[in-house]
Amino acid sequence: xxxxxxxxxxxxxxxxxxxxxxxxxxxxxxxxxxxxxxxxxxxxxxxxxxxxxxxxxxxxxxxxxxxxxxxxxxxxxxxxxxxxxxxxxxxxxxxxxxxxxxxxxxxxxxxxxxxxxxxxxxxxxxxxxxxxxxxxxxxxxxxxxxxxxxxxxxxxxxxxxxxxxxxxxxxxxxxxxxxxxxxxxxxxxxxxxxxxxxxxxxxx
Amino acid sequence: xxxxxxxxxxxxxxxxxxxxxxxxxxxxxxxxxxxxxxxxxxxxxxxxxxxxxxxxxxxxxxxxxxxxxxxxxxxxxxxxxxxxxxxxxxxxxxxxxxxxxxxxxxxxxxxxxxxxxxxxxxxxxxxxxxxxxxxxxxxxxxxxxxxxxxxxxxxxxxxxxxxxxxxxxxxxxxxxxxxxxxxxxxxxxxxxxxxxxxxxxxxx
DNA sequence: CACTTAGACTTAACACTGTTAACTAAAGCT
DNA sequence: AGCTTTAGTTAACAGTGTTAAGTCTAAGTG
Lengths: 204, 204
Fold this sequence. Notes:
The structure is a homodimer.
Chain A: H1 2-29, H2 36-43, H3 57-81, H4 86-103, H5 105-112, H6 126-148, H7 157-177, H8 186-201
Chain B binds a DNA duplex through helix 1.
C-alpha cells in the first residue's frame, strides 16, 4: 500500500513545483505575459503536463491566488494579534494591506485586479472567494468592535467595511496600475487617506 | 488642391469607423477578447488595414480610451456648470464618476483598469494621460476651493484630491472586477463612502 | 518470469493571436 | 502615356491555450 502513497506524494510535489514556477513567473513578468510553455520550460516538463495537474491557465492562476491571499491573511492575522486597541488595529491593517499590495504588485494584480472569467459553475474561484471572504471577515469584526465601543459613530457595519476595503483597494490599485501619475509620496498619501477616513468615522 | 483634402477626409472617416467598431467590440466583449481580425471583420476590411491607421492594438486601445475620458470629462463639466456650491459639486462629481464607471464598465476597464505597457517613449499614453490630468484638475480645483472657503479643514490639496480619486476608483473598480462579492446596495455604498470621506474632511 | 494494465508524460496538431514584408491595383500628376 | 504615390490585400511568422493520440515505464497478476 506504500506505493499509492508515494505516488500521491510525488504528484503533490510536482503540483507544488508547477505552482511555484508559475507564481514566480507571474510575479516577475505579469500573468498575461507568461505562457504555459514558459512555465513548462521552467520546470523542465512538456507544456501539456501542466494540464494533468491544473484544469487550465485560469485554474493555475486561481491556485496561485489562493496562496497569495493566505500570505496576506497571515500578515494581517499577525498584526491583529500584536495590537489590542481596535482602532489602532484597523489603521495598521489598512496600512498593511496597501503595503502588501505594493510589495507584491503582481501578486496583488493577480488576486484583485484580474477578472475571473465566468468559468462553468464554480470549481475555480470558489476557493479564492472563500479565502478573500475570510480576510474580509477580519475587517468586518474590527469595524463592528469599533462601533460597539463607540470609537466609531453608529453606522451599518457592512457599509463601513466595504467602504474601507474600497479605500484601501483604491490606493493600492491606482499605485500599481498608474505608476506614472504624479503621485505625492506614498506614505504621505496612505496616511492622508487613513486620517480622512477614520476622522469621518468618529462620532460627531 | 481639393484632392488632398478629400483624401484626408476619407482617411479620417475610415479611422473613425475603425475606432467606433473597436470601441463597440471592446465594450461588448472586453479588450483582450477582441482581436484585430474581429475589428477588421466588423468594418469589412482586411486586418492589416488597421495598422495603416493605428500603430498597434495598444494604440487602438489608447485612442478609444481618449474618447472615453472625453465623455467622462464632458459629463463632469456639465455637472460642474450646474452646481454652484463647491461641496455639493464635489459630492455630485464623486457620484457621477462612480456611476459613469458602472454605466460603461468596459470603457472604465479600458481607461483605468488596463496597464499601459511601457511603449517605447511616450507616443501613446501621453494623450491619454493629458486627458486624465485635465479631468483630475477639476477635482483639484474643487478641493482647493472647499479648503479656501473653510468647508474643509486645511490640508494638502494634492493629498486630499488623490485620496478622493482613490476612494472613487476603489468603489468603481471593485464593483466592476468583483461583481460576485456580496455587495450591499450600490447607491447605499456610494452614499456611505461619500458620507464618511466628506465628514472626515470637515473642519474639526 | 511473462503479460497485461494503469499511470505519467510527450508529440503533433488545431485554431487562434498580434504583427510584418511583399505584393497588387488604382488614382493623381507630369 | 508613363511614373509615382497611396490604399489595401495576401501570405507568412512566431507565438498562444488547449486537446487527442501515442509512448514508455512501473506496478500488479497468471
